[in-house]
Specification:
The complex is a heterodimer of chains A (190) and B (115).
Chain A: H1 11-19, H2 23-45, H3 48-65, H4 76-98, H5 113-116, H6 121-130, H7 135-146, H8 151-158, H9 162-181, H10 184-187
Helix pairs in contact in A: 1-2, 2-3, 2-4, 3-4, 4-8, 7-9, 8-9
Chain B: H1 4-16, H2 23-63, H3 66-85, H4 87-99, H5 102-112
The chains are: A mainly alpha (190), B mainly alpha (115).
């Protein structure tokens, strides 16, 4: 059995290989997608420990769905974004239900998201502003402008129409600009 | 903030500020993948064995004739058992029938002459 797979193979092909028991397919799929999933989860959760849990769970769901994967029907990246977002939303709602005091504070034990992502104060200011947006607007803006997804892909992730994505992105961006005006100094903008 | 470019630059900065993937997480995910593959493989083997047993049993059943053969066998066995248990009664009945019908033999002699 080969240790490495052909890196030009499509995600769909790798999913089929994985379902057929090829362990090298798991390695290649993880190499391709884990960093994206983890980064997206970090942006949503604002906690390294929870983001890692979410990423692990999302990848686990990918492995479990491999047997039923239908090539050409959905992109692995889109599927992962959707699952990751749903997992994050579940956890964020759980946080709100349980209350912040009852939730373990992961930032005390692990390096902070800021240090992990080597973010500057400018990026922190951006995330502060993003977190003040309504959930869907924030997700649409993050997926479009930070993750770099196209509108049809975002529509699949958020399970809404492309028109709704365009509207959310535009409104989100406008609201974001308004919030960032107050942080001009921090951002070094004139 | 009037400049759209400022915001795009900020987005680009955020895009590039992607933290590293911890090795421990990468390894754990591969362990999870191996576990899932093993579980699926075991489930598949179990199904295969069950299929094989079903096919094998079905083949033998067809070779020996299936349900028609089984019904015929049961009928023959039942009739044989009946004969075995009722043999005395049957033989006695037949003997009595023959001895009580000697006149019948005489009538036959008259009809066809002495045999």
């Amino acid at each position: 059995m080969p240790l490495d797979v052909d890196q030009t193979l499509s995600d769909d092909a790798l999913m089929v290989m994985f379902a057929n028991g090829d362990p090298s397919a798991a390695r290649e799929l993880t190499s391709r997608h884990l960093s994206t999933v983890l980064a997206f989860a970090r942006r949503m959760m604002w906690s390294d420990a929870e983001a890692e849990d979410v990423a692990q769970e999302a990848m686990m769901r990918l492995w479990k769905t491999a047997g039923a994967w239908r090539p050409g029907e959905a992109k692995v990246t889109t599927w992962l974004y959707r699952v990751t977002r749903n997992l994050c939303i579940d956890r964020l709602r759980q946080r709100q239900t349980v209350g912040l005091d009852a939730v373990a504070e992961p930032l005390d034990e692990t390096p902070s998201v800021q240090s992990m992502m080597e973010q500057s104060g400018r990026v922190n200011a951006l995330y502060d502003a993003l977190n003040q947006l309504p959930e869907r607007q924030r997700d649409a803006v993050v997926l479009r402008h930070i993750e770099g997804l196209g509108n049809p892909e975002i529509a699949e992730v958020l399970e809404i129409s492309v028109d709704a994505v365009e509207s959310l992105t535009a409104r989100g961006k406008r609201a974001l600009k308004a919030l960032l005006v107050d942080k001009k100094m921090e951002l070094g903008w004139s | 903030m009037d400049n759209e470019k400022d915001l795009e630059d900020l987005f680009a900065e955020a895009r590039n500020a992607r933290g590293p993937v911890p090795d421990r997480l990468f390894r754990q995910i591969l362990v999870d993948a191996a576990d899932v593959q093993r579980d699926v493989g075991e489930a598949q083997t179990h199904v295969d064995r069950r299929d094989y047993a079903t096919v094998k049993t079905g083949s033998i059943w067809r070779v020996i004739g299936g349900w028609p053969a089984a019904v015929s066998f049961a009928a023959c066995a039942g009739f044989g058992l009946y004969l075995g248990l009722e043999a005395n009664t049957l033989l006695t009945g037949m003997t009595e029938l023959v001895s009580s019908n000697d006149s019948l033999l005489g009538d036959l002699n008259l009809l066809y002459g002495e045999i």
